[in-house]
Amino acid sequence: IPLVTDGNWQEILAGTLVVFIFVAALEEVVFRGILLRTLHKLFGPYGILIATIVYLVLFASSHSFGMVFIMGFVSLLYSWHALESRSILAVTISHGLMFSGMLIFWPLIF
After folding, report:
1. How far apart are CA 41 and CA 56, in angstroms?
2. Are 99 and 24 in contact (CB under 8 A)?
3. Disulfide engineering: 92 pairs with which of 28, 40, 68, 87, CB 3.0-4.6 Å?
4. How far apart are CA 42 and CA 50, in angstroms?
């Protein structure tokens, strides 16, 4: 189900806000803000790997090895950055831009 069907600016703006709030921000707060920090305190560097595996469960239903592989790589990078910077702001913005592109802009272009 596409988030944007007509390509008018109101629909694009609404779809982008939905992606930023309910996909990017929510996932980053849960996975990098809460789960990663907790697992990192409990298991050290292995906490990053455990949090990434838990995050990848979301993408297993896509039945796409490529999607799971790419999101695993992205998750590791986001996790590293969130721990190093002690902030999820940059990864939330990056996540929102990436998913807005995949769910809104690319389908309009192609």
Report:
1. 21
2. yes
3. 28
4. 11
